[in-house]
């Protein structure tokens, strides 16, 4: 095989990998975008109970995928490392808080705050890079963060209260992402370890609900199926996202991450009929401007 043929072959393989990665990531973001519809069907169930079921039903899904991929050795290796276990317990708590606030925001008819939280998330990640990693802000990034700060102020004035749900979701997921990068474990193995560490607490809570007669799992077949399905709805998009992120450029993933919050925002306004004042709309416009600047900064860095 000539050098030219080898080059063409490697380029084609890279293109095929990028194409596969794009569809993996797109499927993940679309699934997350439609998730509010699924969660809305369970709005009569407390958020903590749904989180407990998400934890327990995610274990068999992630385990089957891990066995299929033949990557169980990393999982069992991590179980023997106190350092990894302690760090993964922290990330597990962070992601469960994120899930709980997200689910509550859907049932409380403030899904627009969930969208706002996920919009703010990449900007919080930039700040973490500045304070924890000593990274320098570009002018575009600094202006984007200032716009996001203004948006939070406008939203606070419009609502008469701090949009704490959005801020908790943004901060918890940003810290989660930062800490997960510091742990030497794969995405699927890490996810299984997280839900495994949380499983005793989730099981104890559901047993307590059953003893008190307030467990919704046996309250009709529809509730049972919805709660059991949270395992698939949680594990599958996370694993698809991880598979896509490995095959795509950071700039591509950076732009695609706006798909889910945009869908959540549209569902909040046009499907759930949440009220949207003119001031709240101004806040979202400021956020969209901030994200446009953030995206521009990504492309500038990529070009350099």
List the helices and strands and how they pair.
Elements: H1 3-40, H2 47-69, H3 72-79, H4 82-107, H5 111-133, H6 139-159, H7 164-181, H8 187-211, H9 221-228, H10 230-247, H11 250-256, H12 259-270, H13 278-303
Explain this structure.
- This protein is mainly α and 304 residues long.
- It has one domain.
- The protein is built from 13 helices and no strands.
- It has helices spanning 3-40, 47-69, 72-79, 82-107, 111-133, 139-159, 164-181, 187-211, 221-228, 230-247, 250-256, 259-270, 278-303.
- Helix 5 (111-133) crosses helix 7.
- The longest helix is centred in the N-terminal third of the chain and has 38 residues, at 3-40.
- It is globular.
- The chain starts with a helix and ends with a helix.
List keywords for this structure.
304 residues, mainly alpha
Rg (C-alpha, Å): 21 Å
Class of secondary structure makeup: mainly alpha
Quickly count the helices: 13
Uncertain segments are: none
Strand content: under 5%
Number of strands: 0
Span of the ends, CA to CA: 34 Å
Helix content estimate: over 70%
Q: Return the average pLDDT rounded to an integer.
A: 86
Nutshell version of this structure?
By secondary structure, the chain is an all-alpha fold.
């Amino acid at each position: 095989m000539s050098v030219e043929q080898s080059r063409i072959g490697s380029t084609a393989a890279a293109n095929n990998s990028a194409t596969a990665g794009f569809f993996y990531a797109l499927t993940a973001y679309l699934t997350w975008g439609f998730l509010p519809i699924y969660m809305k069907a369970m709005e009569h169930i407390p958020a903590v109970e749904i989180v407990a079921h998400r934890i327990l039903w995610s274990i068999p899904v992630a385990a089957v995928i891990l066995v299929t991929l033949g990557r169980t050795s990393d999982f069992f290796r991590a179980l023997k490392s106190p350092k990894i276990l302690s760090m993964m317990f922290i990330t597990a708590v962070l992601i469960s808080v994120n899930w709980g606030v997200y689910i509550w925001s859907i049932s409380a008819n403030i899904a627009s705050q969930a969208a706002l939280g996920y919009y703010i998330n990449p900007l919080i990640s930039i700040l973490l890079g500045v304070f924890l990693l000593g990274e320098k802000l570009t002018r575009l990034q600094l202006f984007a963060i200032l716009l996001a700060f203004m948006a939070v102020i406008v939203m606070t004035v419009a609502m008469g209260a701090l949009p704490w749900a959005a801020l908790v979701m943004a901060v918890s997921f940003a810290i989660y992402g930062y800490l997960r990068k510091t742990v030497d474990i794969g995405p699927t193995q890490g996810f299984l370890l997280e839900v495994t560490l949380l499983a005793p607490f989730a099981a104890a809570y559901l047993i307590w609900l059953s003893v008190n007669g307030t467990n919704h799992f046996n309250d009709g077949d529809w509730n049972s199926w919805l709660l059991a399905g949270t395992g698939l709805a949680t594990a599958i998009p996370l694993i698809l996202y991880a598979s896509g992120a490995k095959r795509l450029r950071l700039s591509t993933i950076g732009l695609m991450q706006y798909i889910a919050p945009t869908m959540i925002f549209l569902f909040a306004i046009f499907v759930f009929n949440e009220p949207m004042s003119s001031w709240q709309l101004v806040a979202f416009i400021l956020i969209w401007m901030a994200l446009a600047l953030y995206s521009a900064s990504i492309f500038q860095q990529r070009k350099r």
